[in-house]
Specification:
This protein is of the alpha/beta class. It has a domain of about 210 residues: 3-Layer(aba) Sandwich (Rossmann fold), CATH 3.40.50. The chain is about 45% helix and about 15% strand. The strands form three sheets. The chain has a six-stranded mixed beta sheet with strand order 3-4-12-9-10-11, with helices on both faces. It has a five-stranded parallel beta sheet with strand order 8-5-6-7-13, with helices on both faces. It has a two-stranded antiparallel sheet with strand order 1-2. The chain is globular, with a radius of gyration of 21 Å.
Length: about 475
């Protein structure tokens, strides 16, 4: 398996290169040169397997056996999901006649990001151990990526991790899951700005090739292909349980950075028969406006009850654009340069029309989100977090097409207790392993939204920095 950049101006890369570099040197994102083929019989064979066995089968084609042997891959996968607190790892719960909820919050940090990042941490450890190298990981988070990445990377001998998050724009539980980690290789940075500002600073550090080389930088955000690869497996697992390839299925995905829904798109490209993706947005609705109205224009980021989706520049959307533009890297480069310079994506109407055969979109505001949390609890006794509520609401707004709909529940309700309590009168408790989270001491640095300031902080604390 070889990988290419969405910008098209660098040579093909191996999985090892893609894993350790994260972002391509031409500013693009890595995607496979060609999609592996999973047959209908292969999908049927997944139904009786344990989740870890499904992961191993789905990710195997993306990773060279010479780099990670079959036995090592099995070990890494089993270890990655050993800390999940449900025997099924990703259980399905029926919500109504044609809607099921895929619970992706039973990992150590109570969010779907654990599925990819626990795997990513094990792959980093394996490859860096073979190479005898150390990495500096710099990431941006709108809430859940940070804690999941820190949990996956804490105390690992070959890694330092720096996580940037927007000050005051994540929930208290999300913040404390990052800032209460006392490991010496973990550095939390509260940025005076938005998530998009954090993401832009990370990309700017990768674009400085001298800095990138001196720090041996890598990424844990979903710009890293290995993240997307790891998430693809739960689409296969859920679909197989629901009768794929013989059942008609659609997925409803709450998303801001487009990584989670893109992982489903990858599963479909590999052969999983998914009829539709319903992209669920909050008031920060750039993805809704693209798919529904043919417009992708940047507006101000507004705080909401679903902060992990408070994003206007969806990094992973570039991977879909690459396919929509016929895998023409030069065309993607020109479009992205215009988008960042002018705040609006050229030719968005045509691209949107091409995408609508597969993607639908809905949006909910905060009042609607609270209403969904309330009604789900009244009807079923189930507590759901605001992000999951946005997806349930999106499913309800979309006319039935006869498919079974699988809603991705991306976070535990206890990560957003204020919103859940406001809607239902019930304050969800944190699981026992996090019961004392709100009294643990915090450790974080607050910095201005300035490239030089952030660069200097990382350089001063990164163990991997060279003197060249």
């Amino acid at each position: 398996m070889k990988y290419v950049s969405t910008r098209g101006s660098i040579a093909e890369q191996s999985f090892e290169d893609v894993l350790l570099s994260g972002l391509a040197r031409d500013g693009g994102l890595f995607v496979p040169e060609a999609w592996p083929n999973v047959t209908p019989d292969d999908i049927r064979a997944l139904a009786p397997l344990r989740y870890t066995e499904i992961v191993t089968r789905i990710v195997r084609p993306f990773i060279e056996v010479e780099l990670v042997s079959d036995s090592d891959l099995t070990r890494i996968v089993e270890q990655a999901y050993s800390g999940f607190r449900h025997s099924e790892i990703a259980p399905l719960q029926q919500l109504d006649e044609d809607t099921w909820v895929l619970e992706l919050f039973h990992g150590p940090t109570l969010a779907f990001k654990d599925f990819a990042l626990q795997l990513l941490g094990g792959l980093f450890d394996h490859v860096l151990g073979m190479r005898g190298e150390r990495l500096t990981i710099v990431g941006a988070t709108s809430g859940d990526t940070g804690s999941a990445a820190i949990e996956a990377c804490r105390d690992r001998e070959n890694l330092d991790i720096f996580m940037l998050y927007p000050e005051g724009r994540v929930s208290e539980v999300q913040r404390r899951q990052m800032t209460t980690v006392q490991s010496a290789n973990v550095f939390n940075v509260a940025m005076r700005g938005t998530f998009d500002d954090c993401q832009d600073l990370v990309k700017a550090m990768f674009a400085d090739h001298a800095l990138r080389d001196s720090l041996n930088l890598s990424a844990v955000n979903s710009i890293n292909w290995a993240r997307v690869m790891g998430q693809t497996a739960y689409y296969f697992a859920a679909a197989a349980k629901m009768g794929a390839p013989d059942a008609r299925l659609s997925f409803v995905v709450p998303t801001g950075n487009f990584g989670n829904v893109y992982a489903g798109y990858v599963a479909r490209q590999m052969g999983l028969p998914i009829e539709k993706f319903i992209v669920a947005s909050n008031r920060n609705d750039i993805l809704y406006r693209f798919f529904d109205q043919g417009d992708m224009s940047i507006t101000n980021v507004e705080p909401s009850l679903s902060p992990s989706m408070d994003i206007q520049v969806s990094s992973n959307f570039e991977r879909l654009m690459f396919d929509l533009m016929g895998r023409d890297g030069a065309a993607v480069t020109a479009a992205m340069q215009a988008f960042r310079a002018e705040g609006s994506l050229p030719d968005a109407a045509r691209l949107s029309a091409d995408a609508r055969s597969l993607f639908l979109a809905q949006r909910l505001d905060d009042d609607e989100t609270l209403g969904v949390i309330r009604s789900v609890h009244e009807d079923t006794g189930m507590l759901i977090d605001p992000h999951t509520a946005v997806a349930v609401g999106a499913a309800r707004k979309t006319p039935s097409d006869g498919t079974r709909r699988i809603v991705l529940a991306t976070a535990h309700p206890a990560k957003f207790p204020d919103a859940v309590e406001k809607a239902t009168g019930v304050r969800p408790d944190l699981p026992s392993h996090l019961a004392d989270l709100l009294v643990r001491p915090e450790r974080a640095e607050t910095l201005d939204n300035d490239f030089g300031t952030v660069r200097d902080y990382v350089c001063a604390h990164a163990s991997a920095r060279t003197t060249s």
